[in-house]
Amino acid sequence: MEVIKTPIEGVVIIKPRLFEDERGYFFESFSERDFNAQVRPVKFVQDNESKSSYGVLRGLHFQKPPFAQSKLVRVIRGAVLDVAVDIRKGSPTFGKHVAVELSEENHLQLFIPRGFAHGFSVLTPEVIFQYKCDNFYAPQSEGAIAWNDPQLNIDWRIPADGIILSEKDKHHPTLNEAEWLFDYNENLYADIK
Which residues are annotated as catalytic? Predict the structure, then answer.
């Protein structure tokens, strides 16, 4: 696999080594050995999958400690714009984001470390989205930032009037209004041996 750095330290794009022939293709979508050596040591404990249609926007979500999550995300069918936002107070990239198109054609994956909010918008008629988490889902630790926060200035590549949100995602605070954010100086991976 090839690890591609982004402008925000810790957020990386992973490009798998693809083997193609007349039968189709094969690639290793995850190797704990290679990931821990080339990205960072993590222990993924939960895999999730969602199906969405064009215009759906999910985000910007995170979980607070002690249930903070890293995510390794990819698309099985279709395409999304995947976004990671640095919400670590004191970080030199606080409030900045990385946006990457993930698709069934490019096979790219995005690693979102703990301390970031995550979301995606669906760019194709349908998408199957998969992601690994290194902590279990804990509803009592849910947090979120408004997808349309003007300070973040994210171009979701969908007209605003075409965006489809869950009821919950319509009511998140902006980054400035958020009552809780991560601390850049806190070791969010203290539990990883």
Answer: 61, 131
